[in-house]
Design a protein that fits this description.
- It contains four helices and no strands.
- The chain is an all-alpha fold.
- The chain has one domain: S15/NS1, RNA-binding (Helix Hairpins, Orthogonal Bundle), CATH 1.10.287.10.
- Helix 3 runs antiparallel to helix 4.
Length: about 90
């Protein structure tokens, strides 16, 4: 359900803006999207895991707030590029 450090470093390298960027909203959205997809796969097997479902909803809300920040701070173009790269609809 959690992501490995190798996968996290891979996402950081893929979505970084600057050389030493490790915590921008772009990276945070990518990491949260990976965790959300892992939990979604978990729920295909464990349909009645309601406690983890609450955690999933928290992660989705956190990603939504990061995406809103990107939209207001960096503009609609960067927002749409990020959503397309992450494979999120909207």
């Amino acid at each position: 359900m959690s992501i490995t450090s190798e996968k996290k470093n891979e996402l950081i390298n893929e979505y970084c803006i600057a050389k030493n960027d490790t915590g921008s909203s772009f990276i945070q959205c990518a990491i949260l999207s990976e965790r959300i997809s892992n939990l979604t796969d978990h729920f295909k097997i464990h349909k009645k895991d309601y406690h983890s479902k609450r955690g999933l909803l928290i992660l989705i809300g956190r990603r939504r707030r990061h995406l809103n920040y990107v939209k207001h701070k960096h503009g609609d173009e960067e927002y749409k590029k990020l959503i397309k790269r992450l494979g999120i609809r909207k």
